[in-house]
Amino acid sequence: MRQLNLLSNGYTPYLEGDRIQRETFQKVRDREVDDTLIIVEFEPTYTAGRRTKPEDILNTDLPVIEVDRGGSVTWHGPGQLVIYPIVRLGEPVDRIKYIRAVEAAVVEAIRDTWNLPVEIIEGRAGVWMRNPDRKICALGLKVAQNTTMHGLALNLYPNFDNAFTGIIPCGLNDAGVTSLQQEGITTTLQEAADALVKKLNEHLRPLLWATVGDQLDASAQIQQTPSQTGKEA
Protein backbone atom coordinates (compact mmCIF):
# COMPACT_ATOMS: atom_id res chain seq x y z
CA MET A 1 0.00 0.00 0.00
CA ARG A 2 1.18 3.47 -0.76
CA GLN A 3 1.44 6.08 2.00
CA LEU A 4 0.14 9.64 1.92
CA ASN A 5 2.01 11.06 4.90
CA LEU A 6 0.82 14.54 5.94
CA LEU A 7 2.77 14.71 9.20
CA SER A 8 5.43 16.99 7.73
CA ASN A 9 2.69 19.57 7.11
CA GLY A 10 2.16 20.04 10.84
CA TYR A 11 -1.39 20.21 12.17
CA THR A 12 -3.85 19.62 9.33
CA PRO A 13 -7.28 21.29 9.46
CA TYR A 14 -9.84 18.51 9.80
CA LEU A 15 -11.93 19.54 6.81
CA GLU A 16 -8.81 19.67 4.62
CA GLY A 17 -7.89 16.17 5.73
CA ASP A 18 -11.44 15.05 5.04
CA ARG A 19 -11.27 16.52 1.52
CA ILE A 20 -8.04 14.63 0.84
CA GLN A 21 -9.58 11.46 2.22
CA ARG A 22 -12.64 11.68 -0.03
CA GLU A 23 -10.60 12.45 -3.13
CA THR A 24 -8.40 9.46 -2.36
CA PHE A 25 -11.47 7.30 -1.73
CA GLN A 26 -12.82 8.05 -5.20
CA LYS A 27 -9.49 7.26 -6.86
CA VAL A 28 -9.04 3.99 -4.96
CA ARG A 29 -12.65 2.99 -5.60
CA ASP A 30 -12.22 3.63 -9.32
CA ARG A 31 -8.83 1.82 -9.29
CA GLU A 32 -6.97 4.91 -10.45
CA VAL A 33 -4.45 4.59 -7.60
CA ASP A 34 -3.31 1.81 -5.29
CA ASP A 35 -4.73 1.29 -1.81
CA THR A 36 -3.56 4.16 0.38
CA LEU A 37 -2.84 4.83 4.05
CA ILE A 38 -3.36 8.52 4.90
CA ILE A 39 -1.27 9.52 7.93
CA VAL A 40 -2.17 12.79 9.65
CA GLU A 41 -2.18 14.86 12.85
CA PHE A 42 -5.18 17.17 13.03
CA GLU A 43 -5.81 20.61 14.48
CA PRO A 44 -8.01 20.37 17.61
CA THR A 45 -11.42 19.19 16.39
CA TYR A 46 -14.52 17.46 17.69
CA THR A 47 -16.32 15.07 15.34
CA ALA A 48 -19.60 13.24 15.82
CA GLY A 49 -20.16 9.86 14.20
CA ARG A 50 -23.47 8.30 13.25
CA ARG A 51 -24.15 6.90 16.74
CA THR A 52 -23.71 10.17 18.61
CA LYS A 53 -26.50 10.96 21.09
CA PRO A 54 -27.31 14.51 22.24
CA GLU A 55 -26.29 13.66 25.79
CA ASP A 56 -22.79 12.65 24.60
CA ILE A 57 -21.98 16.33 24.01
CA LEU A 58 -21.85 17.91 27.46
CA ASN A 59 -20.79 21.38 26.28
CA THR A 60 -23.29 22.38 23.62
CA ASP A 61 -21.15 25.41 22.70
CA LEU A 62 -18.45 23.15 21.25
CA PRO A 63 -18.07 23.29 17.46
CA VAL A 64 -18.72 19.69 16.40
CA ILE A 65 -18.36 18.39 12.84
CA GLU A 66 -20.80 15.63 11.88
CA VAL A 67 -19.14 12.81 9.93
CA ASP A 68 -20.33 9.60 8.27
CA ARG A 69 -18.17 7.16 10.20
CA GLY A 70 -19.37 4.76 12.84
CA GLY A 71 -19.17 5.56 16.53
CA SER A 72 -20.05 8.55 18.67
CA VAL A 73 -18.40 11.89 19.39
CA THR A 74 -14.63 12.14 19.83
CA TRP A 75 -11.71 14.55 19.71
CA HIS A 76 -8.81 14.80 17.27
CA GLY A 77 -5.80 17.02 17.71
CA PRO A 78 -2.13 17.47 18.61
CA GLY A 79 -0.45 14.41 20.07
CA GLN A 80 -2.83 12.00 18.37
CA LEU A 81 -1.91 9.95 15.30
CA VAL A 82 -4.70 9.35 12.80
CA ILE A 83 -4.43 6.79 9.99
CA TYR A 84 -7.11 6.33 7.35
CA PRO A 85 -6.84 3.08 5.40
CA ILE A 86 -8.43 3.83 2.02
CA VAL A 87 -8.50 0.39 0.45
CA ARG A 88 -10.63 -1.56 -2.01
CA LEU A 89 -11.76 -4.83 -0.46
CA GLY A 90 -11.94 -8.06 -2.40
CA GLU A 91 -15.31 -9.72 -2.92
CA PRO A 92 -17.28 -10.95 -1.15
CA VAL A 93 -16.79 -7.95 1.14
CA ASP A 94 -16.75 -8.92 4.82
CA ARG A 95 -17.04 -5.74 6.90
CA ILE A 96 -16.60 -7.53 10.22
CA LYS A 97 -13.46 -9.25 8.99
CA TYR A 98 -12.10 -5.86 7.91
CA ILE A 99 -12.81 -4.32 11.32
CA ARG A 100 -11.15 -7.26 13.08
CA ALA A 101 -8.10 -6.93 10.83
CA VAL A 102 -7.67 -3.25 11.72
CA GLU A 103 -8.10 -4.02 15.42
CA ALA A 104 -5.55 -6.83 15.24
CA ALA A 105 -3.05 -4.60 13.45
CA VAL A 106 -3.29 -1.93 16.16
CA VAL A 107 -3.06 -4.45 19.00
CA GLU A 108 0.03 -6.13 17.53
CA ALA A 109 1.72 -2.80 16.78
CA ILE A 110 1.30 -1.58 20.35
CA ARG A 111 2.26 -4.88 21.97
CA ASP A 112 5.27 -5.53 19.74
CA THR A 113 6.61 -1.98 19.74
CA TRP A 114 5.97 -0.80 23.30
CA ASN A 115 5.09 -4.00 25.16
CA LEU A 116 1.80 -2.66 26.47
CA PRO A 117 -0.87 -5.29 27.27
CA VAL A 118 -3.63 -3.76 25.17
CA GLU A 119 -6.82 -5.69 24.46
CA ILE A 120 -10.02 -5.76 22.47
CA ILE A 121 -13.20 -5.60 24.58
CA GLU A 122 -16.18 -7.52 23.24
CA GLY A 123 -18.95 -5.14 22.26
CA ARG A 124 -16.75 -2.04 22.40
CA ALA A 125 -14.85 -0.63 19.45
CA GLY A 126 -11.24 0.38 19.74
CA VAL A 127 -8.17 -0.83 21.60
CA TRP A 128 -8.04 -0.72 25.37
CA MET A 129 -6.02 -0.92 28.54
CA ARG A 130 -7.87 -2.75 31.32
CA ASN A 131 -8.51 -2.42 35.05
CA PRO A 132 -9.82 0.21 34.82
CA ASP A 133 -11.00 0.24 31.21
CA ARG A 134 -9.43 3.11 29.28
CA LYS A 135 -9.31 3.51 25.52
CA ILE A 136 -5.94 4.19 23.94
CA CYS A 137 -6.94 3.92 20.28
CA ALA A 138 -10.33 4.77 18.81
CA LEU A 139 -11.71 3.18 15.64
CA GLY A 140 -14.33 4.72 13.38
CA LEU A 141 -14.64 2.83 10.11
CA LYS A 142 -16.85 2.87 7.04
CA VAL A 143 -17.16 0.68 3.92
CA ALA A 144 -18.93 2.02 0.83
CA GLN A 145 -18.84 0.63 -2.71
CA ASN A 146 -16.36 -2.03 -1.54
CA THR A 147 -13.94 0.71 -0.46
CA THR A 148 -13.04 1.83 3.06
CA MET A 149 -12.97 5.25 4.70
CA HIS A 150 -12.04 6.78 8.06
CA GLY A 151 -9.87 4.74 10.38
CA LEU A 152 -8.01 4.82 13.68
CA ALA A 153 -6.83 7.46 16.14
CA LEU A 154 -4.00 6.47 18.50
CA ASN A 155 -3.36 8.73 21.48
CA LEU A 156 0.38 9.36 21.85
CA TYR A 157 0.65 12.47 24.03
CA PRO A 158 -2.45 14.68 23.81
CA ASN A 159 -2.89 17.31 26.52
CA PHE A 160 -5.84 15.96 28.48
CA ASP A 161 -6.38 19.37 30.07
CA ASN A 162 -7.97 20.27 26.74
CA ALA A 163 -8.38 17.07 24.74
CA PHE A 164 -11.72 15.22 25.06
CA THR A 165 -13.17 17.85 27.41
CA GLY A 166 -16.83 18.78 27.12
CA ILE A 167 -17.87 15.39 25.71
CA ILE A 168 -18.38 11.80 26.75
CA PRO A 169 -15.69 10.23 24.51
CA CYS A 170 -17.22 7.63 22.20
CA GLY A 171 -20.41 7.88 24.24
CA LEU A 172 -18.99 5.68 27.01
CA ASN A 173 -19.58 7.22 30.42
CA ASP A 174 -18.24 4.17 32.28
CA ALA A 175 -14.75 4.16 30.74
CA GLY A 176 -11.80 6.51 30.39
CA VAL A 177 -9.28 7.62 27.80
CA THR A 178 -5.53 7.14 27.99
CA SER A 179 -2.41 7.64 25.88
CA LEU A 180 0.98 6.06 25.34
CA GLN A 181 2.49 8.86 27.41
CA GLN A 182 0.13 8.22 30.32
CA GLU A 183 1.09 4.55 30.17
CA GLY A 184 4.78 5.46 30.48
CA ILE A 185 5.73 5.36 26.78
CA THR A 186 7.63 8.14 25.02
CA THR A 187 7.52 8.04 21.24
CA THR A 188 7.14 10.17 18.13
CA LEU A 189 4.39 10.43 15.57
CA GLN A 190 6.62 8.95 12.87
CA GLU A 191 7.77 6.02 15.01
CA ALA A 192 4.17 5.21 15.84
CA ALA A 193 3.16 5.60 12.19
CA ASP A 194 5.89 3.20 11.09
CA ALA A 195 4.76 0.57 13.60
CA LEU A 196 1.10 0.84 12.63
CA VAL A 197 1.73 0.95 8.88
CA LYS A 198 3.76 -2.26 9.05
CA LYS A 199 0.99 -4.15 10.85
CA LEU A 200 -1.80 -2.67 8.74
CA ASN A 201 -0.03 -3.88 5.62
CA GLU A 202 0.29 -7.37 7.07
CA HIS A 203 -3.31 -7.68 8.23
CA LEU A 204 -5.13 -5.89 5.42
CA ARG A 205 -3.29 -7.26 2.40
CA PRO A 206 -5.14 -10.62 2.38
CA LEU A 207 -8.46 -8.72 2.23
CA LEU A 208 -7.62 -6.40 -0.66
CA TRP A 209 -8.61 -6.29 -4.29
CA ALA A 210 -5.65 -6.54 -6.67
CA THR A 211 -3.45 -3.45 -6.70
CA VAL A 212 -3.24 -1.16 -9.70
CA GLY A 213 0.18 -2.63 -10.56
CA ASP A 214 -1.19 -6.19 -10.34
CA GLN A 215 -4.05 -5.26 -12.65
CA LEU A 216 -1.67 -3.81 -15.23
CA ASP A 217 0.43 -6.98 -15.12
CA ALA A 218 -2.68 -9.13 -15.47
CA SER A 219 -3.89 -7.01 -18.38
CA ALA A 220 -0.56 -7.38 -20.14
CA GLN A 221 -0.68 -11.16 -19.70
CA ILE A 222 -4.20 -11.31 -21.13
CA GLN A 223 -3.13 -9.25 -24.15
CA GLN A 224 -0.21 -11.62 -24.78
CA THR A 225 -2.29 -14.79 -24.52
CA PRO A 226 -3.92 -14.75 -28.01
CA SER A 227 -0.66 -14.34 -29.87
CA GLN A 228 1.07 -16.98 -27.78
CA THR A 229 -1.83 -19.38 -28.35
CA GLY A 230 -1.75 -18.72 -32.08
CA LYS A 231 1.94 -19.58 -32.30
CA GLU A 232 1.46 -22.80 -30.39
CA ALA A 233 -1.45 -23.81 -32.64
Automatic annotation (TrEMBL):
Q: Where is this site: Lowers pKa of active site Cys?
A: K135
Question: Which GO terms of the molecular function aspect are on file?
Answer: lipoyl(octanoyl) transferase activity
- Chief localization: cytoplasm
SUPFAM superfamilies cross-referenced by the UniProt entry: Class II aaRS and biotin synthetases
Q: Which residues form a coiled coil?
A: none
Q: Which UniProt keywords apply?
A: Acyltransferase, Cytoplasm, Transferase
TM ranges: none
Catalytic reaction annotation: octanoyl-[ACP] + L-lysyl-[protein] = N(6)-octanoyl-L-lysyl-[protein] + holo-[ACP] + H(+)
Q: Which domain of life is it from?
A: Bacteria
Q: Where in the cell is it found?
A: Cytoplasm
The annotated pathway is: Protein modification; protein lipoylation via endogenous pathway; protein N(6)-(lipoyl)lysine from octanoyl-[acyl-carrier-protein]: step 1/2
Q: What else is known?
A: In the reaction, the free carboxyl group of octanoic acid is attached via an amide linkage to the epsilon-amino group of a specific lysine residue of lipoyl domains of lipoate-dependent enzymes.
Q: Family per UniProt? A: Belongs to the LipB family.
Q: What is this protein called?
A: Octanoyltransferase
